[in-house]
Amino acid sequence: MSSTTSGLHHVTAIAGDPERNAKFYVDTLGLRFVKRTVNHDDNKTYHFYFGDQEGTPGTNITFFPWTDHGRQGEFGAGQTQDTAYLIHPQSVEYWVDRLESKGVDVDRSERFGETVLQFDDPDGIGLELVASDSAATADAKPWEESPVPKDHQLRGFHSVTLAVAEYGPTESILTEVLGFELEAEADGRRRYVVGSGPASTVDLVQIDAGRGQMGVGTVHHVAFEATDVEEQEHWRDALSSHGQNVTEVIDRKYFHSIYSREPGGVLFEIATTDPGFTADEEVDELGSRLTLPEWLEDERTQIEAQLPEFDPTTVGAGEN
Ligand code: ZN
């Protein structure tokens, strides 16, 4: 049994307006709208997934767009500060130009020898593009219809940066349970890496602030990948043995999930690789309709009537 996770599976955040959210991730960042479904725990709310051509684990950022109950979140300790995607080093100028031409303020810096472009999405969610040679070996599959040319497309996740009041409690889950190792520390940041694959980095930064408050503009949870249900059961036992509360295994249709809030305050999920997003749509059709798991299909008419207004044809229709 593996004692290390294979890295990040997805990141889920709370957005405001669904159209603004989808347009940013598809039209500006060039990700594919791989799945349009509802939050299984609150089916009046959409659940959008944006990723690579196939929705490969490690490429998907997902959103619950909160509209009528759209409480603004408040950034603080126990939250994800930035979600970072990998790009090729030769794509840095392309992305600075692309983002600035769309009115996005970009902050450029160097971190652990790599160029980092930091910016916020329209709801204030922190994003980064990290230029690294490892982009060449990432699993992400280019999306043929992306407004971003293949060579410059996002190559899946590089990392997440979690803001915590102190390193220790979160570090213990990362290193003693999930198999991460401390790789580097500089400028008030600790970097942890697991294995040698893509999407395998978590950074911790200590911030002098109270606990954040979940709401629009904040990340809801970070999901790590388990290759199968047996490995997931191992993580469930390992988290419990470490004194963590862990949920039962929940069927999320596209993966099976367990959830545990790490002691620094960040909600962690462990999600299985399979069955993936082709469980109910072919690769060519991904994201083309509202999909519901079979246990909600009987309620489709009512669910569709309650969802906020959103016209998917407005996404991906803009100029490059
Ligand atoms: Zn999730």
Brief account:
This protein is an alpha+beta fold. Helix content is 16%, strand content 34%.
Report what the structure shows.
This protein has 320 residues and is of the alpha+beta class. It has one domain (8-314): 2,3-Dihydroxybiphenyl 1,2-Dioxygenase, domain 1 (Roll). Helix content is 16%, strand content 34%. The chain has five helices and 16 strands. The chain has helices spanning 18-28, 92-101, 167-177, 229-241, 300-306, and strands at residues 8-15, 32-39, 42-51, 60-65, 79-87, 107-111, 114-120, 126-131, 157-164, 181-186, 189-193, 201-206, 219-226, 250-251, 255-261, 267-275. The strands form two sheets. It has an eight-stranded mixed sheet with strand order 2-3-4-1-13-16-15-14. A hairpin with a 5-residue loop joins β7 (114-120) and β8. The N and C termini lie far apart (46 Å). The model has no long low-confidence stretch (mean pLDDT 95).
